[in-house]
Amino acid sequence: MNLGTARIVIVAALVAVGAVVLARGFDPQPDAAASPSLSPTPSDSVTPSLEPTGSVTPTPSGPSDGPEPNTTGVTFMSLNGTNVAGLAGAAQVMLEADGYVAAADADNSPTQGVSSTTVYYRTDEDEAQNKADAAYVAETYFDGAQTGKLSPVYTDFVPDSAAIVIVVGQDFADARAA
Question: Which fold has domain 52-177?
Answer without folding.
Answer: Alpha-Beta Plaits (3.30.70)
